[in-house]
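#help-structures

NK: newbie question. if I give both the sequence and a SMILES, will the prediction place the ligand too? trying with zinc ion
OV: yes, paste both and it writes out the complex. here, I ran yours:
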Amino acid sequence: MSLPTDLARRRWLKRMGAAGLALGAPWAMGAARPRRLRMDNLHTGETLAVEYFDGSRYEPDALADVDRFLRDFRSGEIAPIDPRLLDLLHRLAATTDSRQPFAVISGYRSPATNAALRRRSSGVASTSLHMRGQAIDIRLADVPLATLRDAARSLGLGGVGYYPASDFVHVDTGRVRTW
Ligand SMILES: [Zn+2]
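OV: that's the protein plus ligand as C-alpha cells.
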C-alpha cells in the first residue's frame, strides 16, 4: 500500500468513527456480524470474495484488496474506497436476497479517466464521486435492474442513478438523491 492511500484511509476511518457506528446501528442491533461481499469486475475479469468487517472493525487487508479490485482499470491507479460504500452494497445484497456477486462496471476513476469519459459522454459529472472512491456502477444477475434501483433508493444511504440503456445502477455515499 502506498502511503497516500494509507493516509486517505485513515482520514476515512477517523471521519467515520462514532458516525460509522451510528450508521451501522439500524441493521447491526445486538452483536455486530461479520460483513462479506462478492464482486465480479467486468472489465478486468477478476473476482473478489472478501470479509471486510469482522464484527467489530473494518479489516485493513480486506479494504486494501477492495481498493485494488476497484482500481481505475484504464490507468491502473488505486485509491481508497469508502467503507460505507461496502456497507451500502452489503445491505443491497441482503435487501434484494441476491445469491449472485455484484457485477461491477465501474469503481474508482482517476481525474484523467473521468475527464476522458466526459469528452465522450454528456452523462459523466465533472465532480463524479467515482473520483473519491464513493461510487460504484453495478448490476446483479438474479435481480431485475429496476428492483435493484428501488432497493437502493429504499435504503436512503446516498445517490442512486438508473441507467437501463447501459444495464447498471449507480450508487454512491454522497447526498441522498436520485436520477
Ligand atoms: Zn456511476
